[in-house]
């Protein structure tokens, strides 16, 4: 019997984690908050990939593992596959989700520069959105690490709710 979590509960939990780390625990150190949020995502991704690959043989190459993340892993998490996968065949992969579920309720201009006054609502919204993306970056990094692919993962949002996750093998 599969265990499932309500999407609204997960959305609320993620929002609360980001809020707590960004505004309370590490309000004066956003880079530390980002690292902590990403670390939580890393552990989640590592454990989930362990669970989802338990019955599978090990992947023979990086592309096979990335395809697993795009199809099976993403389907388990978001009930849909990644919309687009690009690679330069030298260790860089770009996974694009055109309707990333965790950004579906975010409004505003996500590409706003995160500088200037913290009291500026536009900057605060952009900062919150970017902080929200450290968790899924951590999930992807943790899953790939468990599959034998050490990498760095970053996110790019320019047209909400679309999101591109770039993974560079280290």
Automatic annotation (TrEMBL):
<dbReference type="InterPro" id="IPR037992">
    <property type="entry name" value="TRAPPC6/Trs33"/>
</dbReference>
<protein>
    <recommendedName>
        <fullName>Trafficking protein</fullName>
    </recommendedName>
</protein>
<dbReference type="GO" id="GO:0005802">
    <property type="term" value="C:trans-Golgi network"/>
</dbReference>
<dbReference type="GO" id="GO:0006888">
    <property type="term" value="P:endoplasmic reticulum to Golgi vesicle-mediated transport"/>
</dbReference>
<dbReference type="GO" id="GO:0030008">
    <property type="term" value="C:TRAPP complex"/>
</dbReference>
<dbReference type="InterPro" id="IPR007194">
    <property type="entry name" value="TRAPP_component"/>
</dbReference>
<dbReference type="GO" id="GO:0005801">
    <property type="term" value="C:cis-Golgi network"/>
</dbReference>
<dbReference type="InterPro" id="IPR024096">
    <property type="entry name" value="NO_sig/Golgi_transp_ligand-bd"/>
</dbReference>
<dbReference type="Pfam" id="PF04051">
    <property type="entry name" value="TRAPP"/>
</dbReference>
<comment type="similarity">
    <text>Belongs to the TRAPP small subunits family. BET3 subfamily.</text>
</comment>
């Amino acid at each position: 019997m599969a265990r499932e979590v309500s999407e609204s509960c997960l959305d609320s939990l993620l929002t609360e984690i980001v809020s707590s780390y960004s505004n309370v625990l590490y309000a004066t150190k956003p880079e530390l908050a980002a690292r902590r949020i990403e670390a939580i995502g890393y552990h989640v991704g590592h454990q989930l990939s362990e669970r989802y690959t338990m019955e599978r043989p090990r992947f023979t190459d990086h592309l096979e593992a990335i395809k697993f993340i795009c199809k099976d892993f993403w389907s388990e998490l978001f009930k849909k596959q990644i919309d687009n996968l690009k690679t330069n065949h030298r260790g860089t992969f770009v996974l694009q989700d055109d309707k990333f579920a965790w950004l579906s309720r975010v409004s505003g201009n996500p590409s706003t520069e995160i500088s200037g006054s913290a009291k500026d609502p536009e900057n605060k919204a952009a900062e919150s959105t970017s902080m929200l993306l450290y968790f899924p970056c951590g999930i992807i990094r943790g899953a790939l690490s468990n599959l034998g692919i050490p990498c760095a993962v970053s996110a790019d949002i320019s047209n909400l709710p679309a999101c591109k996750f770039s993974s560079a093998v280290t």
